Amino acid sequence: MIKTLFIAAFMMAAVPAFAQDTPAADEAALSAEAMALAKTNYDDFCAACHAANGSGDIGPSLRGNGKLADAAFVYRQIAQGGSEMPGFVDVLSTDELLALATYVRTNFGNDYGPVTEEDAGLAE
Prior knowledge:
The protein contains four helices and no strands. By secondary structure, the chain is mostly helical. The protein has a single domain (about 30-115), classed as Cytochrome Bc1 Complex, Chain D, domain 2 (Orthogonal Bundle), CATH 1.10.760.10. Helix 2 (about 25-50) crosses helix 4 and helix 3 (about 70-80) packs across helix 4 (about 95-105).
């Protein structure tokens, strides 16, 4: 009986430790890290024109902007730039560009969802 209780206690202690090392837990942590870096990149590269709160200044408002519904457009705009906007493909990595596009689409009152490699035309 004591041996059975010991094994049960061991299993109960091991399950949470194992769950922390699963890919889903790692993905959630990476996602949080990626969004924190995306916010920093937004503050560094975007806020001067689009405002810290996304309301626009020199650049257009990102709040409720219907163009953000098109994930491919958002990625291209950030990577390649536009008429007045510089591109950041030579400044940010692909992962940073995807995260920044996702950050813009999921903040400032927007709820469009993440930008994937497939959305950006990068999937093989």
